[in-house]
Write a structure and sequence with these properties.
With 112 residues, this protein is α+β, with helices and mostly antiparallel strands. It is built from 3 helices and 6 strands; from the N terminus they run αββααββββ. It has helices at 3-14, 41-55, 64-70, and strands spanning 18-21, 25-28, 71-76, 79-84, 94-99, 105-111. The strands form 2 sheets. A 4-stranded antiparallel beta sheet has the order 3-4-5-6.
Length: 112
């Protein structure tokens, strides 16, 4: 992680503006909030993309089209799970984001 980003997150945590989630640790709370409810798979994938790059601002960003092609979203009750599209017979690997129906990020984790 970039040193300035670490200092930024530590500063936010001092003022109770960060939240610990999943395997990514502490992140700015602003990355977890949303103003839009998620109504379909496309919105879920794009919300996951926004959250990922907010949490990882120094990572090279891929396009929305690449995310829509390489990720899938599935309902889990009212919530959504976004993860990579995997070939048949593969168990996992990559970015996973759990989202509430209202767009809040519930968890972010990597599978191996």
């Amino acid at each position: 992680m970039h040193a300035i980003h670490v200092i930024y997150v530590l500063f936010l945590c001092l003022f109770d503006a960060c939240t610990g989630i999943g395997t990514v640790g502490y992140v700015p709370t602003s990355c977890l909030r949303s103003v839009h409810a998620i109504v379909d798979e496309r919105q879920a994938i794009l919300r996951a993309r926004t959250a990922w790059y907010c949490i990882h601002p120094y990572e090279a960003q891929t396009s929305e089209q690449d995310w829509l092609k390489n990720f899938e979203a599935a309902r889990r009750g009212r919530d959504w799970k976004v993860g990579p599209v995997l070939p048949p017979g593969y168990a996992g690997g990559g970015i996973n984001v759990l989202l509430a129906a209202d767009g809040r990020v519930l968890d972010v984790f990597m599978t191996g």
